[in-house]
Amino acid sequence: MIRLLGVELHQLVRSRRTWVTILLIDLLPTIVAVLLKLTDIGPRPGTGPAFLSAVLTDGTLFPLAAMAIVLPLFLPIAVAIQAGDAIAGEAEQGTLRYLLVRPVGRTRLLVAKLVSVIAFVLLTLAVVAVTAYVVGVLLLGTQRVAGATTTVSGTPLTQGELVTRTFLALAYALLCMLGVAAIALFLSTVVDTPLAAAMGTMAVLVGSTLLLTLDAADSIAAFLPTRYWLAFVDLFRDPILWRDVVRGTLLQGAYVLVFLGAGWANFATKDITR
Amino acid sequence: MTATIIGTQGLTKRFGAITAVDGIDLDVREGDVYGFLGANGSGKTTTVRMLLGLVLATSGTAEVLGRPMPRDGRHVLPQIGALVESPAAYPRLSGRANLRVHDALAHGRRATRKGRVDQVLEQVGLAGVDERPVAAYSLGMRQRLGLAHALLGEPRVLVLDEPTNGLDPQGIREVRDLLLQLHRGGTTIFLSSHLLAEVEQIATRVGVLDRGRLVVQERLDVLKRPTGRTYVRTPDVAQARALLDGQVESYDERSLLVRVDDVAALNALLVRGGVRVSGLAPERHTLEDVVLEAAGASSDRFES
Amino acid sequence: MRPAHRWTAVAVGTALLVGIPLAVRARPAEDSGISAVDLLAKVEAGADHPYSGYVESLGTLQLPTADRFTDVGQLFGERTRMRVWWRSADAWRVDKLLTTGEQDLVHNAQGTTRWRYEQHDATLSRDPSIRLPRTADLVPPAVAKLLLDDVDASEVRRLPARRVAGVDAPGLRLQPAAPQSSIDHVDVWADPRSGVALRVEVVAKGATRPAFTTAFRQFDARTPPPSRTEFEPPAGAEYRFDDVLDIADAANQYAPILPPDVVAGLAESPQADGAVGVYGSGVTRLLAVPMRGREAGPLREQLLRTLGVRTVDSGTLVTLGPLGVLLTGTEGEGGWLIAGTVTPDTLTRAADDLFANTVYVSTR
Asked: B84 — contact with chain A (CB < 8 Å)?
């Protein structure tokens, strides 16, 4: 298992696609930071990603704003592509059959692919957070005189609390992406091409986002995968509003369990005919 | 009797309404070069995939190296080298890097990895290959790399599906020599092919698959047994016919086909009779005859 | 394990994951069997009971969005998520939660402070008796207090209990007797121990679904700590004092008029002390705000664009569920903005009464 993980992670960090994807994801918040710096125009209240209005005066919040920028669309697309490629990509290349006769256990392969996707998300979040912090501090500066960052509720936040809560938010984002990865991984064991798996996952996410805007879908809203994605903002209220974060965690956990289970049930006895 | 390496009982695979493999009983013995013959679409690849646990049988059982497949795949597969249908590799990595990946997965020790990778590259004639990615390989190079994959880890059994695909005559010769060399070293080889000549040249046992059924399974030398007729080459055809009255089955201007049990006695008779004999050869069954007789019409013909 | 077994395991797991929360939610609530009158008394007695929690309100009224009324339109036309800490009527805090930040109202001895995260500003104001609705008015106890005010025992009956924020809450239905009312009924579910209203639904005449719903999703009847109702403006934030809270407050303070004591048969409320008239009680309420031409103009334009708008003799009339809005006068003129939970007929009668009986004073 460790060797398999080693091989998977080695492939991940060696792949040019990994870094190009991360770079593209990283580019968007950086562009936003530059535009904010040049124009000094924040989003109108109630619009735009969370924390973006606050970064004009406090650059240290930019990692959070960057996360709010990439989390709704860019990151899930990248995860859907990455995880959708996991099994279907190997099958399409023909390398899947050679992995399986090496032999690599099917369940192990599935788990290794999931770990590889987790590593990809971690890597992306780390790169985005670090770049955003550097860009935020350099471009947007720490103009807030007293130095203390405030919570969304207007109370002061110490550096320690800010760092802790930022890491909590990153962990939460990671979990949300894990839910996406589980769906994509399942589809990747079902369909023949990585593109179909990625598109299928995106269809689920877009459908979920759309249903959330309908009052008629209220009764199923709590079960939709994107329902609690932006709940990480609640970590920056005072006191922290755990309600949605906890629900989001349980929901994503359920998605991971169900779809990994379905992926396992399907893949473990699937005929590999390609 | 030598040990059975691959044995199946009533192995069957249905894809929906189509029966791809229909109750075959394979029997591959230790030390065999087993030629698994069949037209395209006859179920060869599906059978190979079932033996390797890639496709699950609808019914029937398969044992490889004495253990049930696919249940004991973890123990069986490390002793098998396989080339399934066509070679495949990560296109962005070099051939060497691809082999390193597989070596790492096959529990090879890191310290000796380079030696093992170099050895199999040498065996398949890719020793001098540069670090170009596999995407830039020719078809023949990919085939050689696929063979190298299969050879990694010094397997007891080689399961090769169309191993000479895409190779030039020189390459085919090299692969044949390599397989014979491995065979001499004690490796059992299961060679699936649609090329009669390829199988005829190196196989010791032959199985013929026709539309999912195993129609022939026999030692090659048994299949190619004498027909009981002998070719006689002679300029004196008329004289010979007179001498061998009743035994000649056919003739032309330079030769005759004679039904005879004792070739030496035939030769003595001809010489005594003053017939000049320029050649004398017992006729044998050819593999082609056997296959055609057993398999009937080509499977890609559709007649009303 | 055979494929069928694997799939069965996955299906059972999924069913449990989905089913357990649904089953827990569907568990029937226990009813204490309290009578309607007793429950009403309990809720009225619990009006000042402290509490804290998380509230979601959902309004379906598509109010016109003229700039000075935008916030009101959002309150009654959208989903509002709030956190509330209520120590007493003199010390409370209501946070309106947004995905992009927060807008908080903190009320204490200093007055009411509004904190807006995105604008990074805080505004302190006094708490006028006449003002437009705000988030703090949407929490169930505040809504219940407003609507159950002055209710006759004959107007209420019991509803079966339902589970609200984990509490088995007995229900109460109020069916107003006043003919002027546009409200068919108001349903209230309350905490049986503290009497705090936990869920309120308002259903308009002729409607089946509530026009407005507000409910606790998390509820705690303990007194929140004093620190929750304190507010220190953060360093660097803009901090100012506002003399006038909103347009209703401004009109009430500065318009040189006095409205009549009774309109459309509804008596003026004792809290009305200026130019703005507040009439009726309980669920039948009406507000009359005098507006100048430049304020009435944009509002009239918005009203004219609202679905179902009617032009009547006295002005422009819109009904949105239980809420009726009438702006008197025509283009370019000022006029009375008359709004309330009353029938259109009551609105026009009120307009007539306002025209006939308003007293103009020289100075205020």
From this structure: yes
